[in-house]
């Protein structure tokens, strides 16, 4: 079930579900007896992107690039600087005055559904609890809706009486999705939701999410380090490195014609069945250096790993340029970098 062109065209005419402008998230580092602030982690450092209604945007990057922090900050769960996030046209600050409104707009589902489920609560009760918290006080209405939600996520009615420990990883993830759907959100932030699952189960959950997106008109921010998954589900992709946006564009455009050396490097790490292509990709692979998010880099933050770095890169941070329709890149030399494709 690959994304069709007509779907992309339909999305193109829609409004913005998520608008992120110059998002910054910083965490203080405290040490010593008095827990004084001794440094600041710049987890997200000026990121701008949006998600159109009904669209899936994939957020990718190596570990520590700020994907989870970006996703959490959109729902007020990490300290974004004021004015940087709007959800369906409303500022995050306004939405945070009413937790109820914010949760009705956006829900977060993450990798480990076991952590979000009370082991002593049967699945039916766990879903009913989510419905109760969000205002459904009538017991029989809750009961009915709980079975509807189980059905929507492909679980049998008898799952209601089972406990989390008796479910497989895929079934638990379906329960986590059902609990998120209980509030009828318009946006879902999906953080590594299939990373812990077997490949065949991953496919089932991804297909379920894509079906739900169509029937429930959901907008997804899909966070993952798995590029094959992102290519399968996302209309567009945002590539992050050290808290910054490096490249953004329609998924096929970024995969077939990546412009940023960091994206080249990420794509080089994806195994492909063709040995000749695999050899070429290995040659292209760049060893990405470990980084320290508490120091400020002058110039391009990828310079230490980039084979194309020169004095300009070392002295001036690249701006984000639109290099073709809806394809943006933060690199001084994107036009000179040899073509690369994973097919
Ligand atoms: N509460 C926190 N306090 C201090 N630093 C934090 C906090 N949360 C995240 N960070 C730091 O912010 C940076 C970005 O972390 P984040 O979890 O957003 O990365 P990620 O891209 O989701 O990584 P992964 O792929 O491993 O999940 C990391 O250096 C992390 O250590
Ligand atoms: S700006 Fe320079 S160092 Fe940065 S990615 Fe581009 S070529 Fe490499
Ligand atoms: Mg993460």
Please tell me about this protein's structure.
- The protein has helices spanning 5-12, 67-73, 92-96, 99-105, 113-116, 123-133, 139-152, 169-181, 199-216, 227-233, 251-256, 261-268, 275-284, 311-315, and strands at residues 16-31, 36-52, 56-60, 85-87, 90-91, 106-110, 187-191, 219-223, 236-241, 244-250, 321-324, 327-329.
- With 343 residues, the protein is an alpha/beta fold.
- It has one domain: P-loop containing nucleotide triphosphate hydrolases (Rossmann fold), CATH 3.40.50.
- Helix 6 (123-133) runs parallel beside helix 8 (169-181).
- The protein is globular, with a radius of gyration of 21 Å.
- The two termini are 18 Å apart.
- The model has no long low-confidence stretch (mean pLDDT 88).
- Bound molecules: adenosine-5'-triphosphate, iron/sulfur cluster and magnesium ion.
Label this structure with key terms.
single chain, alpha/beta, Rossmann fold, 14 helices, globular, binds adenosine-5'-triphosphate, binds iron/sulfur cluster, binds magnesium ion
Concise structural overview:
By secondary structure, the protein is α/β, with parallel strands linked by helices.
């Amino acid at each position: 079930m690959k994304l069709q062109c007509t779907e992309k065209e339909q999305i193109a005419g829609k409004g913005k579900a998520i608008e992120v402008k110059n998002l910054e998230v910083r965490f203080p580092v405290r040490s010593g007896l008095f827990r004084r602030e001794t440094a600041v982690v710049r987890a997200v450092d000026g990121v701008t992107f949006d998600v159109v209604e009904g669209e899936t945007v994939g957020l990718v990057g190596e570990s520590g690039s700020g994907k989870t922090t970006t996703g959490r900050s959109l729902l007020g769960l990490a300290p974004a600087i004021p004015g940087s996030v709007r959800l369906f046209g409303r500022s995050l600050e306004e939405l945070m005055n009413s937790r109820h409104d914010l949760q009705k707009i956006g829900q977060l589902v993450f990798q480990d559904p076991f952590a979000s489920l009370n082991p002593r609560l049967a699945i039916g009760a766990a879903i009913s609890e989510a419905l109760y918290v969000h205002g459904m006080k009538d017991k029989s209405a809750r009961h009915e809706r709980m079975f509807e939600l189980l059905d929507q996520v492909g679980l049998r009615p008898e799952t209601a009486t089972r406990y989390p420990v008796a479910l497989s990883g895929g079934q638990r993830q379906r329960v986590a999705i059902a609990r998120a759907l209980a509030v009828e959100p318009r946006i879902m932030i999906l953080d590594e939701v299939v990373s812990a699952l077997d490949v065949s189960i991953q496919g089932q959950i991804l297909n379920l999410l894509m079906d739900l997106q169509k029937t429930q008109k959901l907008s997804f921010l899909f966070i993952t380090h798995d590029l094959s998954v992102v290519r399968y589900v996302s209309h567009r992709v945002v590539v992050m490195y050290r808290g910054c946006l490096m490249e953004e564009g329609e998924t096929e455009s970024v995969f077939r014609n990546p412009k940023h050396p960091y994206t080249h490097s990420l794509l080089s790490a994806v195994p492909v069945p063709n040995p000749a292509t695999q050899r070429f990709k290995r040659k292209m692979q760049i060893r990405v250096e470990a980084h320290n998010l508490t120091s400020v880099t002058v110039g391009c933050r990828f310079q230490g790993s980039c084979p194309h770095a020169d004095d300009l890169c070392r002295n001036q941070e690249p701006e984000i340029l639109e290099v073709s329709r809806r394809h943006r890149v933060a690199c001084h030399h994107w036009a000179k970098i040899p073509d690369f494709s994973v097919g």
